[in-house]
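Q: What does the predicted 3D structure of Calcium-transporting ATPase look like?
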Amino acid sequence: MPQDSAREPLLPSSHNGARNTSGRSRFAFTVADLAPLTDPTAPKLPRDMGGIDRIFKGLDVDPKVGLHSDESDSHSLGRSDQAKFEERSRVFGRNILPTVKSATFFELVKKAYDDRTLILLSIAAVVSLGVSIYEDYGPHHDPDEPRVGWVEGAAILAAVAAVVFTNAINDYQKERQFRKLNAKKDDRQVKLMRDGHEKEVNVKEVQVGDIMLMEPGDLLAVDGIVIKSHNITCDESSATGESDALKKDTEEKCYVISGSKVLDGSGAMLVTAVGPNSFFGKTMMAMRDSAPEETPLQVKLDLLAESIAKLGMAAAIAMLVTLVVKYFVQHAMSSNPMPSGSQIFSDMVRIVIQAITIVVVAVPEGLPMAVTLALAYATTQMLKDNNLVRVLSACETMGNATTVCSDKTGTLTQNKMTVVEGTLSLLPFNSVDNAKNWKAEVKPEIARIIFDGIALNSSAFEDKDEKGNLAFVGSKTESALLGFIKLLGESYSNIRGNVKVVKVYPFSSAKKTMSCVVEVPEGQGPEKYRLFVKGASEIVLRSCTHYVDDEGHIKSVDDNTRAKFEQIISSYADKALRTIALSYRDVSSSEFKKFKDDEAPNSKLVCLGVVGIQDPLRPGVVESVRDFARAGVTVRMITGDNIQTARAIAKNAGILIKGGLAMTGPEFRALSKEEQTEAVKRLQVLARSSPTDKTIVVRRLQELGEVVAVTGDGTNDGPALKMADVGFSMGITGTEVAKEASAIVLMDDNFSSILKSLMWGRAVNDSVRKFLQFQLTVNITAVVLSFISAVTSDDNQSVLSAVQLLWVNLIMDTLAALALATEPPSPEVLKRQPTSRTAPLINFNMWKMILGQAIFQISINLALLKFGAQLFRLQGPDGSISDLQKTTLRTMIFNSFVFLQVFNELNCRRIDDSFNIFKNLQNNKVFVLVQAIVIGGQFVIVQFGGRAFKTVPLTGNQWLATILIGSLSLPVGVILRLLPSYFIPESVISHASEERQPLVSTGKLRWEGASNQIMSQSNFFDAIRKGKKTHKHDENAPTVSLWKKYGATLHGDSN
């Protein structure tokens, strides 16, 4: 159909080849024809396409029956193997997004080998192999010498292959882990009309042409047009940015888009787009096109690795030039004739191989891999702790979080609401058992009105849960009220069956009330209709002009009565109960006709009473809040509850302390930007908040340099979740939109799981730093040792051969990354403040260990090279050393070097000044296993490596001696930890603290709270003595006025 070329759709079309180009179909429409029906920018109306009946006919669907479950292609009637909806799926697509193609193992091998130094080393090894084979089998070869010259070149190639395949296997395992994480999606059921009956089917099986039933709370997974509506209201903020709820009808505002949520009402829709052709699908496919970004830590490490590689390249070039010059100078000054051309070429190849090997060792390619391994391991383990990580960088970012803005209901509390107290008809009850006594005391006719109001003015209902047990489905507050009357022997379904509801005004988050109008059965009321209203107690009470007393009489509300109700509400709120007021009024037929459909007539109400609903704190919340405080992370509660209930729950959880600020969303919004910035430093509770308030709080905190984590479950929480440094969505109660906007999904909706993600985040950062400390030590030692030993030796050979250096490279890159990046977090990570955003990767303690250990290891190895023959008695009586003794000494130095790294890896398990490097070692089985593999591999190389590794077998005493030399890393580590900071000048290594301090410390908050409480009491007594009602404050002092108004302390310096 023709479209307006001047108007561009909100998202580009993604027809995914859905146009039926392979031949004619029985459908009158294509994906492209139906797409304009649900374009949010300017949707085409059904009447523009010939009317809804023509669309039904064009999609081959009966509006009264829906699709037939056994539908198949008309050209294949009678074929039992014909797939259901085959042609429909071929033309319009399925409600499944295409899977992302993952890299094959061969592609990962190619990627791992795509490294210039490894390629150079391979080329040099091939050249060396060719030269050696020529020498072994050429005409100048001595028949008495074994033909083993090819071993070195082959060994280098084998070592390169080992490095490449190890990296590829690690990448392959990581990809598999992330595929498993991404595959963990909700497989939910939706209600459709098929074969003339309501049916529940998997959301993936929904087809274009299906008639989907719509109910409050439904998250729509497809696009469509409304064909039946009973006050349907949808939240489409995720797609359009329109925060207001949108009413839907079957005429002008009939389009609905995937990703939106049904807030109120019920009805049915005709599905017009599924999968990648739906609005949500197009959004998801567009997000797939963007390449995955590196995490901030990976970017930092890449820059560091590049700098180290440049230094390594400089050292390799210097070594190459020095050895080449030395080679020709030595032979020029020697009395022996110059070697042959082939011999010079062979020696040059060996020198080049040594230089390239220096580059391989110097380039810390293991750094990015360490981050990847740490993140892959952490995200897998976090899933076991009910944290599904969707954005990889969130894992490391959470480790440095400084504040958590948490929802209350379902996150801090259990979301298992029950009515525990109430005052109905001015008759109180303070427990579930007392409620039965209340029923016996209250007038039956009043009890009937209360029960009817609870049952009829509600959208919750009873159904079987996944375990087959009966449970209430819908709003937790309404479920608590239905549970209350069920406990008293009433059946909500019988009440609904006997009374006709004629108007419904669904719950509005703006008005905080829900209302309905019902027809009163004959003889049960003075008028034909009755209005029931329930909602936030203080709001409903303002609309009440009368109340029911304990005798069942209706009386006018005077100031004393209103004050009494307010006292009841306040007493319940102080006990952390959610207060709900119940009210009604009888309505005449003439008055009923004047009622509007979109505005509830909540006036002149009769107050039936107030109930207190308890939502207990989740187990472990108090301990988690305490642990967050100990870790330097401030917890702030942002909730829609009233201020008193929010305060009480926050106090019980340990969130609100003396000196903290508790205020409502409207009050916070009304402040100037400067006042908001000042208030947010001490803000601990924000009640009656909207999604806009949450976004403002996040923005103000980030402007102050905070790393903010935010929880959210609703579609309208999306902006705040996106804006936060780490967004947590709810896995159980959260909408798909909230999950898509978040970085981490809390699978159990539990606040304590956020603490576990903080621990894992800090563990990831610590793991990378441990590996960095270890690798830089090995880098410096290996490069310097190889350079000095090669330059000072007679044969221009490094004390560590090329193959030995490749083994060392494997130890310090892949295996060390595996060992140090997979350590689970310990409770100790919560005993320190968060790390500042600007903190360097390598702190003072790390530099102290890196430089100290490197200097020690270089010194001990050079000492062994110089005096080892005497120390280990590897020389004859005349001081001469045979070739075997030289090889034995080099083997012992190689063995000592490796064991220095093995023991230093234990040192690197601690990056602070703690002495107990063995703490929790038994919990890190991967570390123990890797160390065992390294020691086992070293034993095989030394005892059986032979010519390939240029080693000879060592005796038991020689093994013991080299292991003891390697173990010296441990006492050196203790000495370095004891070394005071003032021994090392600030100009050499920065001593600056890397910890991020809270905006206002807990101690300062408590001190300010206590001092202002004393000042307030003093002002009060001064006012009494002077006969004044209030104490005048300077209106230009915003901090004083804020404290005066909201009971918080904002005096003094806020740093």
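A (community wiki): The structure tokens above were generated from the sequence. The first helix runs from residue 31 to 34. The first strand starts at residue 189 and ends at 194.
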